[in-house]
């Protein structure tokens, strides 16, 4: 979060210097907003719409009596950023049946395996019994990685070290871990090619009929997060997105905005490598923190 907060702190400082809002000041603030959003890797069309909306509001609405102009500017910026990052409602993650099957997808290196364990830990702390299944047959290290993470947090685990058929592993995982409240199924992030990867996750989806499909995206891809989500969406519904590595890049702002535009809901953000470093994503709280 530091990189993104630092990026916005310049903009906030500029606004705090404003004594009254004339056209020149407004233009300068608009330019600073654009610079900030572009540096955060927000897609250009969203930056344009955002700035136009904010400028229009500031021109047309008068600050309520007694509110200093700078506070009014911050307020408009806050409101518009909340919209950009996904709107009012914090998205909830609520298992509604037992076992609640969660399918985790994402390209290799996105932080998918780590996020499986983080999500399991998050749910276990809230009283759910969580099982984990590894179906990656392409990268054998994934099996050991998730098994070790499962052991560390004390979650039942199913996987087949030398397994060849991801769909069968998923099926057997569901059969073997019947007693849990939530079952998290991790999938491969790399395959012979992208098409093969997407076909495989679709086949697992068809076989286990998950209650929630979660796509894990690395914040450092910034606005390209939308293209990643859309590629998966062609094959299966994406209910939830988790954006990882928000701690290490300012581009996470762009990733959040780009994903919000696809209509998928960001429910969590990853803010570190540790298994505890997963936060529910609440646009209001997030933007409030961003603006200091
Ligand atoms: P996978 O290939 O998608 O399963 O990715 P991994 O779970 O193996 O994660 C790839 C790398 O990203 C590892 O070094 C993780 O520790 C790291 N990582 C995952 N999530 C986060 C996060 O939120 N913040 C940071 N800084 N690193 C993360």
From TrEMBL:
Q: Which domain of life is it from?
A: Archaea
Signal peptide as annotated in the record: none
Name a GO molecular-function annotation.
7S RNA binding
Name the residues that bind GTP.
106-113, 186-190, 244-247
Q: Which reaction does it catalyse?
A: GTP + H2O = GDP + phosphate + H(+)
The reply on keyword GTP-binding is: yes
SRP54-type proteins GTP-binding domain: residues covered:
99-292
What subcellular compartments does it reside in?
A: Cytoplasm
Start and end residues of each AAA+ ATPase domain: 98-247
What is the uppermost EC class here?
Answer: hydrolase
Query: From its record, what is one biological process in GO terms?
Result: SRP-dependent cotranslational protein targeting to membrane
Q: Where in the numbering of this chain does the Signal recognition particle SRP54 helical bundle domain appear?
A: 1-85
E.C. number: 3.6.5.4
Gene Ontology cellular component terms for the protein in this record: signal recognition particle
UniProt keyword terms in alphabetical order? Cytoplasm, GTP-binding, Hydrolase, Nucleotide-binding, Ribonucleoprotein, RNA-binding, Signal recognition particle
Chief subcellular location equals cytoplasm
What is said about its interaction partners and assembly? Part of the signal recognition particle protein translocation system, which is composed of SRP and FtsY. Archaeal SRP consists of a 7S RNA molecule of 300 nucleotides and two protein subunits: SRP54 and SRP19.
What the record says about its domains?
A: Composed of three domains: the N-terminal N domain, which is responsible for interactions with the ribosome, the central G domain, which binds GTP, and the C-terminal M domain, which binds the RNA and the signal sequence of the RNC.
Query: What family is reported?
Result: Belongs to the GTP-binding SRP family. SRP54 subfamily.
The record's function comment reads: Involved in targeting and insertion of nascent membrane proteins into the cytoplasmic membrane. Binds to the hydrophobic signal sequence of the ribosome-nascent chain (RNC) as it emerges from the ribosomes. The SRP-RNC complex is then targeted to the cytoplasmic membrane where it interacts with the SRP receptor FtsY.
Q: What is this protein called?
A: Signal recognition particle 54 kDa protein
The lineage is: Archaea, Thermoproteota, Thermoprotei, Thermoproteales, Thermoproteaceae
Name of the coding gene = ffh
Instruction: Say which residues of the entire protein are included here.
Output: 1 to 292 of 433
